[in-house]
Amino acid sequence: MPGTGWTGCKAAWTRIDPGLPHSLQHGLVNRRIRIRMLAALVLAAVPIGGCMATAPSCYTKRAAVVLPDRTRVLAHLNNGAAGRALAEAILDGRVRDAEAMLARDPRLIATAVTDDPNVPQPPAGQYGDLLTFAVSRCNADAVTMLFAAGMPKDGVKPGAALSLAILADSPAMAEQLLSAGASPDPQARGGEDPMRSAIAFGHIGGVMTLLRHGADPRWTDRFGIDHVRMAVDAEQAEIAELLVQKGGTLWSIADDGSMAAHALLDTPVIFTSPEMLAARDRLRERARNANIAWPPPDRAEVRRQVAGGAWPTADMAKAGMTVAPAVLARIQAGIR
To answer: pTM for the full model?
Structure first.
């Protein structure tokens, strides 16, 4: 998907998933199709005007990336005038000035965009912390200085900087964060999800970077949706195949009884290159050979078997079927 794009401007859709990274967050009405529609927008929509000035040189391949908007950021920071001055210095690339401000008042390291609990989705570009601002400007020196000044490795807004860095043209920014100690799975502790960013943009290189630094290919969100499922739903079969090869599974059970294996029954409508279709065929063949069932049982049957304690059997678990404890508890309680 490099080179294609839509603007970062706020879309007039109806429901927001707070787990979506700010670098790609827009609302969608249906969780099942959210990632697929994002992928479609990245591929096909026509830019209708930007939300910020010309993008830094390291964000040219994925034009849909939503970078922090200077005006919106500066108007919604904590730490008053001092916080705004510090953020301006980072955004302007004045690293020594920013370093001096932090030396005078180390507490300013916590400067970040404030979240209004009454606004479920802020305007596009109104997000981030100092680390995110440095990453948005591709400024490795600023990142180094911020870590030396006490910036948490995942940032004040956990995962925001990495979720943006993973979408840069080069892996250098993401590698710098990860090598400094940033978690490849900040979403596991309530932060933003960089793997979801990479999947939504079809960025297999970003996925490889996160996996190389220890990202868990079987992590699931609160609904039981794992990254393999996200990739299959987004018709990113090559990414799904890579995740499975690295330990992911086609058989992680979600709240509604669905699995990535179910999504493989759908016919791709957007990403239909020979390579993508071949990867999808290989995933189907892997599912057929899993000694579970092919085609997979319908979702209601999966829920019934899980609720009754019959599934996963030992053989199914060995083949990769899994259900997160919280999902299991909700299914057994009849909650969807």
So the answer is: 0.86
